[in-house]
User: Fold these one by one.
Assistant:
Number 1:
Amino acid sequence: MYNYKLLLLFLILNFGALAIGSWLMDKGPTTNWYLNLNKAPWSPPGWLFGVAWTTIMLCFSFYMTSLVGYKPVTYIWILFFIQFVLNISWNYFFFNIHMIGVALFILISLTILVGYFLFNFNADMGKKSLLIAPYFIWLLVANSLNIYAYLKN
């Protein structure tokens, strides 16, 4: 039987992370600092970020709900909350205090952690591992954008 209460909890936590991240970046994407930043030529349009993060958090919620059934729960929750903190803190360091290098370190750390989820639990999760693939792929794109911003500004 599927654990819908756990799924609801992960949906609340993941979309809560998006809300906290948005709050921490304040008006980041519309500030003069960001608008005048040298951005990568392959930067996606602004609307795509909302679509991507909504898709990612839906998939990640289903992934985490399934993963809790396979591995020791405490270990999974610790990894989840590290991911949670890294995810939301990037917004603050990048958009609020303009520490692009620190934000890049956070993003690389988050990518390694999400990659750990993807590759380490693949044997247990099987095809369900594909649910975390959008998160990992998006982080690779985000890393390239952050690296460009770090090098060009």
Number 2:
Amino acid sequence: MKENNVLVVTTENIPGYQIDQVLGEVFGQTTRSRNVISDFGQSFKAMVGGEIKGYTKLQTTARQEALARMQKEAANLGGNAVIMFRFDSNTSSLGDSVNAYGTAVKISPLSV
């Protein structure tokens, strides 16, 4: 199963579906380093106010990568959904770390 076919929700249940099997915790992690030269310019911008677009882009890219890795891990376990999905992030001098995590499950549509 391709990772992009893995449904990801923040809830415990998915309306219209039943959970057939719980496969366990799955994680997607990434750490993105910042560009030292860009970092200097971004720091200056932070002093004068306004959005720091370089950091916003870095965070967005890191979240997308962590999410895709988590979906791939769920698919590798045979799951087609992740429930109770969450992000956790941390910024350090090395860069921004993002963890995506949840519970991989197999779901099927509820029969009517």
